[in-house]
Design goal:
CATH architecture of chain B: Orthogonal Bundle
CATH class of chain B: Mainly Alpha
Number of strands of chain A: 14
Structural class of chain B: mainly alpha
Structural class of chain A: alpha+beta
Number of helices of chain A: 8
Shape of chain A: elongated
CATH architecture of one domain in chain A: Beta Barrel
CATH superfamily of one domain in chain A: Rod shape-determining protein MreC, domain 1
Largest interface: A-B, 51 and 46 residues
Radius of gyration of chain A: 45 Å
Shape of chain B: globular
CATH topology of chain B: Arp2/3 complex 21 kDa subunit ARPC3
CATH topology of one domain in chain A: Thrombin, subunit H
CATH class of one domain in chain A: Mainly Beta
Order of helices and strands of chain B: HHHHHHH
Oligomer: heterodimer
Distance between the termini of chain B: 26 Å
Number of domains of chain B: 1
Strand order of the largest sheet of chain A: 1-2-5-4-3-12
Number of helices of chain B: 7
Distance between the termini of chain A: 134 Å
């Protein structure tokens, strides 16, 4: 008996070692402690190995990042200012876009509330540094430098800004193991955005991704985006997963197909990841605050746009005009208040013109007060007088009209031609009923105020002050 | 080329400083875990397996090689998410076979190392595949081309690694 053991001790040791490990394997496979969790003894062994292997990795990664941050934070700052300005513009643009989408999001939330659908929004994330991998092709896992001491728990989703990465598998005090989505044992609920086809994202050997066992659909095209569906209760809905690479038939399920996926996140070169440590059913306070800020900024932007539009449209205020002609200026250069310009006076006033009708007390029943020509009322439009000469606006025939309207007959007399300077090639008829209202009712058609008047020459300088310059540009 | 050990020196056991027995497996595990961060194709290598093959074939003690291979394999298992024992079983077998062969053949010859390492890598992957596929029931395909390429690359690296480790042997 002794010779048997001594003769086959090598083989016996091998058999014992193999049996022990096979037994341990069977126990681990048959009786897992919990869903996805290791037994305490297994966790203890993993923790022992991780505690030995990861500290040097953490040290190397930390040292490398210290040097890289020293370089990128102090020396390599070229174009930072320009990039900062560009990023600020991008932030403003994104805030505006977000404001536009906020209404849709709010409506979606209301509808989800009506349907009692529990949406999961990301409340809080924890950045973590990737410090190691499993080192085996069969196991697509990475190690991050945050653990239970930082609040990490099992099954927390791990993402990057580009897309999903995986979920926390094992948590140690200072380190955590993350199972990548490329591992064959992982599964993520996803939706093809173009066709709204739901499926399960699983890893393939050698780090590939595929959505397995979906119905054939000719609408599925290469490049279609794929997002998380939220059905796995781990990843919030709507996170980018990747794009469709190509569709291949499923050899095990003949009518169904598999969709090979190009991951959105750069899983082969992960440097820093975000662990989603808190999710909720509604928007986080910070997100709500951001949306409110972007909405306010959107309103301000719209106001600015309306201001710009109003500046481009014609305005009562003309910055190029003389200072005393703008309505905003209430005082002239001499300090006297400037009255608003009178309404334009009609070139050919008739009985319908403002202030053309005589006082009812002065009217005689049956008496025609409008001018008569060839037996009818003379309402024929006349030729317009030529424009007044620059700097001589008070000499135009209508220039005196406002003054005549508001002043008495002597004031109207000042508008009568004193000189015979020929400034207008054509004759002009001014029905002066309004200039002397007191005479309209009492005068017949031959009254001076209704008589045709020859073109007025330039008024003398003494008369230029009797009428404002705005009156006679018609 | 003499494959079989023809002299006492070729069949004699070798020894290393104690730190080599401790640091070399740890360094292999660390590199295997760390380098794929920056070079993802590095995971096609299996440095712990090469360390097991080297020490087993050099020390030529099957019991120590079996236990050592099992420990290194379990440590490698601990870094993955799969149950402990898959790599442990495979590397215990490789250690035992390598040490048993090391007693009979000249394992210091580069040609012998070339052939043995190639075969051991394929054998190791075969055991892993059987355990993962049939014991754990995980979908894992077997691709001959990939396995042969993987074995060839590991063999090439093993030649360099073994030459470096030879320099750490105790001089008599």
């Amino acid at each position: 008996m002794e010779s048997f053991f001594s003769r086959y001790k090598n083989a016996l040791v091998l058999i014992m070692v193999l049996l022990a490990q096979l037994l341990a394997l069977a126990i681990q496979v048959r009786r897992p402690a919990a869903e996805g969790a290791d037994r305490p003894s297994v966790s203890l062994l993993r923790y022992a190995v991780v505690s030995v292997v990861t500290p040097p990795e953490r040290l190397i990664v930390g040292t490398g990042h210290w040097f890289s941050s020293l370089w990128f934070g102090y020396f390599d700052l070229i174009h930072v200012r320009r990039q900062n300005a560009s990023l600020k513009q991008q932030v403003q643009r994104l805030q505006l876009e977000e404001a536009g989408l906020a209404q849709d999001a709010a409506q979606g939330q209301r509808l989800q509330h009506l349907l009692d659908f529990k949406e999961h929004y990301i409340y809080k994330t924890l950045p973590a540094q990737v410090i190691g991998t499993s080192g085996a092709e069969e196991s697509q896992v990475i190690y991050i430098d945050k653990g239970s001491d930082n609040g990490l728990q099992q099954d927390m989703p791990v993402i990057t800004a580009d897309g999903i990465v995986g979920k926390v598998k094992d948590v140690f005090p200072h380190t955590s193991q993350v199972l990548l989505v490329t591992d064959p044992t992982s599964g993520v609920g996803v939706v093809l955005e173009a066709t709204r086809t739901s499926g399960i994202l699983k890893g393939r050997p050698f780090g590939q991704l595929q959505v397995v066992d979906i119905s054939p659909d000719s609408r599925i095209k290469s490049g279609d985006p794929i997002v998380t569906s939220g059905g796995d209760q781990i990843f919030p809905r709507g996170l980018p997963v990747g794009t469709v690479d190509r569709v291949v038939p499923d050899p095990e399920h003949d009518p169904l197909v598999d969709v090979l996926v190009h991951p959105a996140a750069h899983l082969a070169g992960l440097d820093e990841v975000l662990v989603v440590t808190n999710v909720g059913d509604s928007l986080s306070p910070q997100e709500a605050k951001d949306i409110a800020a972007s909405e306010a900024e959107s309103e301000a932007e719209q106001k600015r746009a309306s201001d710009i539009l109003s500046e481009r449209l014609p305005s009562r205020y003309d910055p190029n005009a003389p200072a005393d002609t703008n309505p905003q200026n209430t005082t002239g250069p001499n300090g006297l208040p400037i009255s608003p310009p009178p309404p334009p006076r009609p070139i050919h006033p008739d009985q319908f013109s403002p202030n053309a009708e005589p006082n009812a007390a002065n009217m005689t029943p049956g008496h025609r007060w409008a001018s008569v020509k060839y037996g009818t009322e003379d309402t024929t439009p006349r030729a317009h007088p030529p424009a007044a000469q620059p700097g001589n606006s008070t000499t135009s025939p209508t220039a005196t009209a406002p003054a005549a309207q508001t002043s008495s007959a002597p004031a109207a007399k000042t508008a009568q031609p004193k000189t015979s300077a020929p400034i207008a090639p054509k004759a002009k008829t001014i029905t002066g009923g309004s200039s002397a209202p007191g005479k309209v009712g009492s005068n017949g058609p031959s009254a001076p105020s209704h008589a045709p008047v020859k073109p007025r020459p330039a008024a003398p300088a003494s008369t230029s002050q009797t009428a404002p310059p705005q009156g006679g540009h018609r | 080329m003499a494959l079989m050990a023809s002299t006492r020196r070729e069949a004699d056991t070798q020894s290393f400083p104690l730190f080599v027995y401790v640091l070399t497996p740890l360094l292999a595990l660390g590199l295997q875990s760390f380098v794929p961060l920056f070079f993802s194709h590095f995971s096609i290598l299996d440095l712990p397996l090469l360390v097991v093959i080297y020490f087993a074939s050099t020390l030529r003690t099957p019991i120590a090689a079996t236990i050592g291979g099992a420990l290194i394999g379990l440590a490698q298992d601990a870094l993955t998410h799969q149950p402990l024992g898959v790599f442990g079983i495979a590397k215990a077998c490789i250690g035992y076979v390598a040490a048993s062969l090391g007693v009979r053949i000249d394992t210091e010859s580069p040609a012998t190392r070339l052939v043995l390492t190639f075969l051991f890598v394929v054998l190791n992957d075969g055991i892993d595949w059987v355990l993962i596929r049939h014991l754990l029931a995980h979908p894992m395909p077997w691709g001959w081309l990939h396995e042969l390429v993987r074995a060839a690359i590991n063999t090439f690296i093993a030649i360099i690694l073994f030459a470096l480790l030879d320099r750490l042997k105790n001089r008599e």
